[in-house]
Here is the input.
Amino acid sequence: MDDREEVLATARRARLAAAALRLLTRDQKDAGLVAMADALVAATDRIVVANAGDVERARADGTSASIIDRLTLTPTRLADIAEALRDLAKLPDPVGEVIRGYTLPNGLQIRQIRVPMGVVGMIYEARPNVTVDAAGLCLKSGNAALLRGSSSAALSNRALVDVMRESLAASGLPQDAVQLVPGDTHESVKHLMTARGLVDVLIPRGGESLIRSVVDNSTVPVIETGVGNCHVYVDRDADIDKAVALVLNSKAQRVSVCNAAETLLVHADIADALMPVLIPAMAEAGIRLHADERFSRYAAEATITCEPVTDADWAAEYYSLDLAAGIVDSLDDALAHIARWSSGHTEAIVTDSQTAAMRFVAGVDSAVVMVNASTRFTDGGEFGFGAEIGISTQKLHARGPMGLPELTTTTFVVTGDGHCRT
Amino acid sequence: MDDREEVLATARRARLAAAALRLLTRDQKDAGLVAMADALVAATDRIVVANAGDVERARADGTSASIIDRLTLTPTRLADIAEALRDLAKLPDPVGEVIRGYTLPNGLQIRQIRVPMGVVGMIYEARPNVTVDAAGLCLKSGNAALLRGSSSAALSNRALVDVMRESLAASGLPQDAVQLVPGDTHESVKHLMTARGLVDVLIPRGGESLIRSVVDNSTVPVIETGVGNCHVYVDRDADIDKAVALVLNSKAQRVSVCNAAETLLVHADIADALMPVLIPAMAEAGIRLHADERFSRYAAEATITCEPVTDADWAAEYYSLDLAAGIVDSLDDALAHIARWSSGHTEAIVTDSQTAAMRFVAGVDSAVVMVNASTRFTDGGEFGFGAEIGISTQKLHARGPMGLPELTTTTFVVTGDGHCRT
Here is the structure.
């Protein structure tokens, strides 16, 4: 069997499993999740040994300490991963939810209900926790999971998936609900991306180049999880203290995340009052400014030097304490800047003006708009979803933080009593 | 300017228009729709003359009478097209609808609201009514429309779009809300399909090969409207009269449509009672059977001859009075047949058994499942949507009949009072 045939055979087994999964009750799925959690904890030694093999190879390859840290599984981390599966079991089942329902004048009863997608492919990077996480989210939503992790975590992923499959089988559930995509070359990803008709949706999780490559080459529908070039706009009518707090929290509370702010825009009319407070506070927080001329002049007054801002800065997702900054003459200028440079993730306005807030909300075309709140709140957990698959920056199907319902599609169920069309 | 640059320049104008359209109120959009309707009626002569040019060329090219009929615009047809725009004005505005809303424990207020997609590309075949229809649906949902009709309707589409653009300008609305994609070669379609970032979604409407080509080649997200290989399954516990009526209505009420039935599956236990009534009724309706051996034996008893059914028949969307037919030994065998051959559009069960109905609904993976109702009801109009863009047979974003809400995406609006994340 060649590589492509092997991937397709795996996808066909996933389809068969999916047909069984869509008939499971919530009780059956939740019992499976808890059984998987118990099995992972019971197999701690086996998994940690497998993981040690990956870590050893990564060390020998000279992998960076931060990536090795993300790759490493300890008994404590494994317990946390298992606990997340138990939390998932406590969440409501998205399948079966009636999202529209009404009766037509002719008596036909129409209900639009959530049903599983079918086969969900996940393509992701080194973190082995995603293997368990994705398997759990798919099982809870009634989908079969096809998992393609990084080859650097191959031994860990193999062990985790083997343990979960054994536990599914022991629970009387289809073990092909969770499968690894065979092969660890780039070719196997290509076969997965072109298995249209066998795979219902692909979700890439990871860096920009991974996501770009899946979006460009997949004929299977993709949910793009994305880059966050988030903006904070301080309006003319902002409260100074709130503005300072929100800028610092959005930029500096945690920098290595997609919902951190990367650009600050300040209305010219508030700059005189705001800057003497904001600039020293930013400097104290270690924020490095890449600013336009007017902004830089304010910084200079506080003896802070800025780098001159470039188009590359306006476009950047820094993942660091760097911040692009500029002065705008109006809210509409801020909207125009955001329309040009934003990645469509999250934009925030700080204002006490109801008019300004309404205009900003209407004018921004992004997944999330914050009014007097930190960009850092764009997160499935913060939104109360209980579980998050990723944050979609595309417009089709799901936009913003995605929870379990975003792993479902819908069916219209139409019930009549021999109704014919005339 | 080369062809690609010309298409991209058009898309950029559409993006600018979209930024203005998302700020319009419902009143403004509805006034625009009514103005467009009035303008089209007032320009009847101009449009009919342009259309005559297309019709003349089609005749000279030896085009079939049915296609010429679909291409032809008469004053009456134009009045109907304009009336559809007025009907659209009466429908609720999907933009601004709050589809989820709640307050978090920390006081943050979260609302998920419908917003326009942005730029919607439509690729369609000879019917010039789609030009107006699509422009109207896009305007109502706050989107800019990029229209790429068939070159055989080029003069008609030019005239229709010119009249609509003039009326938009006269109403103070952005005239680039409606544009034709420049160029009538296949290349211009290719440029549209690869204008990712400028075009938010593509909706192909037409035959299978057109849709296939868009799905396979587009890097812009596509909403696939699809092929209907619909099944009717008559269960063991069906009412005979309802079963006969539903089979005839599903297959023969109108054959050239995607929601007509193409395959009939009959439970073996009801065949003795059903067939003596059903077979003559189907023959009288002119239905031509392609049947398996067991089904054919029942037909032979009523002196009706069947063609032996082939895999091509099980797969076919006939668009005619032909019907593939077979006997199954159980509901699960019917589900397995449907899982193998269905295009995921609509499947119907005829049964008086609640257990059978529940199992069928849970086991079928299609956009619509009918219980004791004709497959012909799968339609935005019949569902009470007021307007229909098409019927999606894909699972992402929209599945089944699509109305105005399916032309929107959502934004999360999060309102705080200086909320920072800790």
Observations:
- Chain B has two domains: 3-225+401-415, 230-382.
- The CA atoms of residues 367 and 400 of chain B lie 5 Å apart.
- Chain B touches chain A through 69 residues (CB under 8 Å).
- The first strand of chain B starts at residue 98 and ends at 103.
